[in-house]
Amino acid sequence: MQSFSEIDTTSKRASKAAGFSWGVAEEIGKNMRNLEMFGLPGIKNLNLYLKKIKKNPSEKPKKIKFFKQSFQYSRKKNISKI
Asked: Which pTM was predicted?
Protein backbone atom coordinates (compact mmCIF):
# COMPACT_ATOMS: atom_id res chain seq x y z
CA MET A 1 0.00 0.00 0.00
CA GLN A 2 1.30 3.42 -0.93
CA SER A 3 0.99 6.58 1.13
CA PHE A 4 -1.02 9.45 -0.30
CA SER A 5 2.20 11.40 -0.82
CA GLU A 6 3.65 8.55 -2.88
CA ILE A 7 0.47 8.38 -4.95
CA ASP A 8 0.72 12.11 -5.63
CA THR A 9 4.40 11.96 -6.58
CA THR A 10 4.12 8.85 -8.75
CA SER A 11 1.04 10.16 -10.58
CA LYS A 12 2.75 13.49 -11.16
CA ARG A 13 5.87 11.87 -12.58
CA ALA A 14 3.91 9.47 -14.78
CA SER A 15 1.83 12.34 -16.16
CA LYS A 16 4.91 14.41 -16.88
CA ALA A 17 6.54 11.44 -18.62
CA ALA A 18 3.39 11.05 -20.73
CA GLY A 19 3.87 14.59 -22.05
CA PHE A 20 1.74 16.78 -19.80
CA SER A 21 3.10 20.11 -18.56
CA TRP A 22 4.29 20.37 -14.95
CA GLY A 23 1.20 22.35 -13.95
CA VAL A 24 -1.18 19.77 -15.37
CA ALA A 25 0.92 16.93 -13.92
CA GLU A 26 0.70 18.51 -10.46
CA GLU A 27 -3.08 18.77 -10.74
CA ILE A 28 -3.29 15.15 -11.85
CA GLY A 29 -1.20 14.11 -8.85
CA LYS A 30 -3.43 16.03 -6.43
CA ASN A 31 -6.58 14.61 -7.97
CA MET A 32 -5.32 11.02 -7.90
CA ARG A 33 -4.44 11.47 -4.22
CA ASN A 34 -7.91 12.85 -3.48
CA LEU A 35 -9.66 10.05 -5.37
CA GLU A 36 -7.67 7.42 -3.49
CA MET A 37 -8.43 9.16 -0.15
CA PHE A 38 -12.12 8.68 -0.81
CA GLY A 39 -11.66 5.06 -1.86
CA LEU A 40 -12.16 5.65 -5.57
CA PRO A 41 -9.91 3.98 -8.20
CA GLY A 42 -7.75 6.96 -9.16
CA ILE A 43 -4.50 5.12 -9.87
CA LYS A 44 -6.25 2.39 -11.83
CA ASN A 45 -8.06 4.91 -14.04
CA LEU A 46 -4.94 7.03 -14.55
CA ASN A 47 -3.01 3.92 -15.60
CA LEU A 48 -5.72 2.93 -18.09
CA TYR A 49 -5.84 6.48 -19.50
CA LEU A 50 -2.07 6.74 -19.90
CA LYS A 51 -1.99 3.37 -21.68
CA LYS A 52 -4.81 4.50 -23.96
CA ILE A 53 -3.11 7.73 -25.02
CA LYS A 54 0.17 5.87 -25.51
CA LYS A 55 -1.48 3.51 -28.02
CA ASN A 56 -3.48 6.20 -29.81
CA PRO A 57 -1.86 9.58 -29.31
CA SER A 58 -4.35 12.30 -30.10
CA GLU A 59 -3.49 15.41 -32.01
CA LYS A 60 -2.42 18.48 -30.12
CA PRO A 61 -5.15 20.65 -28.61
CA LYS A 62 -6.47 23.20 -31.04
CA LYS A 63 -6.49 26.85 -30.22
CA ILE A 64 -9.93 28.12 -29.26
CA LYS A 65 -10.98 30.89 -31.58
CA PHE A 66 -12.42 33.97 -29.93
CA PHE A 67 -15.23 35.72 -31.73
CA LYS A 68 -15.08 39.32 -30.68
CA GLN A 69 -18.38 40.20 -32.33
CA SER A 70 -20.41 37.60 -30.40
CA PHE A 71 -18.74 38.68 -27.15
CA GLN A 72 -19.69 42.32 -27.68
CA TYR A 73 -23.24 41.28 -28.53
CA SER A 74 -23.61 39.28 -25.34
CA ARG A 75 -22.15 42.10 -23.25
CA LYS A 76 -24.59 44.62 -24.74
CA LYS A 77 -27.46 42.22 -24.21
CA ASN A 78 -26.54 41.69 -20.54
CA ILE A 79 -26.02 45.41 -19.93
CA SER A 80 -29.44 46.25 -21.30
CA LYS A 81 -31.03 43.87 -18.79
CA ILE A 82 -29.55 45.77 -15.85
From this structure: 0.65
